[in-house]
Amino acid sequence: MTATIEPVDSTTQSHLRDGAQYKNDLRDSRSVWVADHKVADVTQEPTLGPGIDLMGTMFDDQFNPEYRDVLTLTDPETGERYSRSWQIPRTLAELQDRRQLIEYTSFKTAGTFGRPPDLSPLIALGMYSRSPLFKRSPAAFSKNNHDFAENIAKYMKHGRDTNIIAAEVLADPQNDRSGPSGGTAGLLRIVGQTDDGIVVSGAKSVGSIAAQADEILFTNLLRPDLPPEACVWAATRVDNPGVKLICREAVSSPGADPFDHPLGYKGEEADQFIVFDNAFIPNERVFNVGDTELLKLYGPCSQWGHWHVLTRMWVKAEIFVGVAQLITEFLGTTKIPQVRNMVTEVIAYAQTLKAFVLTAENQGYLTEGGVFGADINFLTAGRLHSIDHYPRIIHILQELCGQGLVMRFPRAAFDSDEVGEYLEQLLPGHGVTARDKNRLMNFVWDLTASSLAGRTAVFENVNSTPAPFIRERLYREFDRDRMVGMARDLAGLPYE
User: Fold this and answer.
1) Which domains does the chain have, with CATH numbers?
2) Sign of the four-CA dihedral 126, 163, 64, 42
3) Environment class of residue 477 by beta-carbon count within 10 Å: exposed (0-12), middle (13-18) or buried (19+)?
4) Is the pTM of this model over 0.85?
């Protein structure tokens, strides 16, 4: 049954877009390249369009009574509805309400979109949460008297009012780090300033959903050799004349039969290599110019983004639990102790991630800017647990399938007059047809073994930050003084 979609131009919905409006707004002058051709219309490009269609359904669901309160909220003063993507949580309850949106987008994409539409607004929210720290005197490098805190507040309002998708990109181009440049070739930097804004050149990498988004939020990570002109934090429209997006190879199965690829046919979040060639950024979209101290805030500002990552991993883990149970039921292996142990391991993984998320929220606090955020140490420990155990969970799902993951067949084989009856007669599951058992195996393939799954597994490690770096961060940020005091007291050691 098709849900009723309310008119998008009604008074209470004026700050929301439906899927058609979202797609129409992507038909602009953006410069997007797939292989050797420039894309005329990203919504019709085979490698980009299905992912756009999937995100379009998320916009439509804002008007679906079943999801309205999950995806949107009402301004108590005006009565108008806004997307929860740009919600500013002031309390624990509001943070938990915002989490419902993460759970929705994670389920909608089966966790394969590491940066779904509601992630990047959380980076902007992170900046907003530290607004008092952005009220600084202009750096010596800056020629203009920017009020970065005011710009951030205006950008949050802009996102809230227009229901945009703003892709976030941080990674530098991967190139030779052994030479004198130390891998800084292509480093994004300010190459000019005017009374109206800045001009930037360079490149950023792994721009997930950038070609499928409205705007790009970008910055550089602070490092010892970073020059002042590379201390930049800003946002730009994707159709900026100075911006070119080069898409990586597609890993999903656009145009495939949903039976053959139940997940892959839906498309993917495409990643882009983003080239800035004398791209002009107006003053109101600039959040840092030449100030190294502000770049130090990226870690604290990404706190809500990390909360999103961990929540998505939890939701995906619950999907894994469901898949594991279905496999064993379809194969009739639920009574085998070794099989039950493997399913239990998947359950424990999901429950552990859930515990990290809920505890982080309940140990949360208000920031300098009056935003409620989850405890960073629990988030860091949870992300470490998630990526440490992710390969093992994927292996368990594959092992539970046995040969079924290798011996899969397309719909055409089942429909064949010559061989279809053999498949139906010789490959049934426990209480299910061979066709349905095969469809489940096709889904597990897409989820764990396809090129889409491979990209997702690599992305989880990169997006969550490799485990050694997370361990170092947890070591640096975790306050152990109270625990050291406990150990000293119990051991009878004097305090220095």
Assistant:
1) 11-30+38-120 (1.10.3140.10), 123-291 (2.40.110.10), 302-484 (1.20.140.10)
2) negative
3) exposed
4) yes
